[in-house]
Amino acid sequence: MQEDNLSYIYRGLFTQTITDSIISLAENNLDSTGETSKVKKRVFSIMVECLQNITRHQTVEGEEFNDSSIPGIFMIQRKDDGYFITSGNVVPNIATPKLRSQLEKINSLQQDELKEYYKQILEDGSISDRGGAGLGLIEMARKSGNKLTFDFAKVNDDISYFYLHTAISKEIENATAVPVNLDNIKSLHRLSNEEEIVLVFNGVLNQDSLINLLSIIEGQMRGRVDIKKKVYNIMVEMLQNIVKHAAKGDDESVIGNPGIFFISSKNNSYSLCTGNYISNKSVEELKGKLEHVNSLKGEEIELFYSMRLLNFEIDNSKEAGLGVIDLRMKSGNCLDYSFSKVNDQVSFFTLQVSLK
Amino acid sequence: MEALFYKKTEDTPSIIFDPSRNTFEIAYRSLPEDANGFYEPILKWLNEFYENPLPKVDFVFFFEYFNTSSAKQIAKILLSLEKLSQKSEVTILWKYAKNDSDMQSTGLRYSKSLSLNFQFIPV
What we know:
The structure holds two protein chains of two kinds.
Chain A: E1 7-12, H1 16-32, H2 37-56, E2 59-60, E3 63-64, E4 72-79, E5 82-92, H3 96-108, H4 111-124, H5 135-144, E6 149-154, E7 159-169, H6 183-194, E8 197-205, H7 207-220, H8 225-245, E9 257-264, E10 271-279, H9 280-295, H10 299-309, H11 322-331, E11 336-341, E12 346-354
Antiparallel strand pairs in A: 1-4, 1-8, 2-3, 4-5, 5-7, 6-7, 8-9, 9-10, 10-12, 11-12
Helix pairs in contact in A: 1-2, 1-7, 2-5, 4-5, 7-8, 8-11, 10-11
Chain B: E1 4-6, E2 14-18, E3 23-30, H1 35-51, E4 56-66, H2 68-84, E5 89-96, H3 101-113, E6 117-122
Parallel strand pairs in B: 3-4, 4-5, 5-6
Antiparallel strand pairs in B: 1-2, 2-3
């Protein structure tokens, strides 16, 4: 986990609120890591086009056709040389030949030709209600400076899964014309399907990114209200632990602390996991607190919580804070955790909370 | 005494403490990054109100959600109202959404630890 690394995966339903939060989350991370405004603008416009592509294809000819059993996926990754955005969604097989030919046409054109082609389509007036005709795709190719990589994976006789991958080089001159191989992305997708991953976030955590992550999960979750509330509660405590107590990254100018968060809902049972650096000096104390909280049974947990709730003089004590006790209470399970030493200063701490 | 107003935000509650209308209400969500900092002026306001209180006051708590660091600050508010109850007739109206058993038991937990008159109101 490199501290300037940004990557996240969202898998599920795409609504307006959720896509807004996905965009804000990226905005917050690009801001807090000090990305140049030029690169930021390009990343945003491509993200917006990409997300619109997914939401647009959730309906076909005005009919809701996408059944939620096959969720869409959105990924953004940052590597040294740029950003990589991938979307995946179901499209009807009858629509794939047209989509493929549009993409092939776009990939055959140079930058200046793309501009012409864009104008030509606009003047043509052949734009459908849903803004089809590939204008969004042309924009993505123009803004990225790269060819668009795509693939269709047949699901059944009616539908295919459509992958669209855009590389955004930091310097447009360094753009590569070579389409990348999507095998990695596809295996990542397969894995998140198997584990029923809802969200993976690897980046800078601060209060703003916490709010955006909450809003994505709130919008996504279906089912029982009490479980939804529990997941929300657990998420706040886990992420605020990172915001408040994790070790900072090497770059002091970054607002927030590096951390990893993921949530899965395998077999309808939610599991939340965080990973972050902590100072080696804090390891033993935290371990002690977690062991103590895990050793409590039934009524003892509630008693310990009430005692801690009204004690204001023990903020520096060796006893676990309310947050950790709350996690134990809400999950109904023991907390799973691990520490691994990274270097003389910090260790990597993971915490997993599963809902019974 | 000047009223205290806070509009709700994504992570902080709405607050109306208005002695001129005898309205006291705190509602919505509370999950600020710095709960201490957020609640400090509110506790200060209550301390001043204690000096010159109304004879009878109802305090409405109608939370949808609060995190554990806010839970401690809310405990402080309730302790301050416990002190006030020596001078005025204080009632805590603990409102919660009727399917929200968590918020109900959170209120019950406070009521058990404090000598305050609590009324539980499912909405």
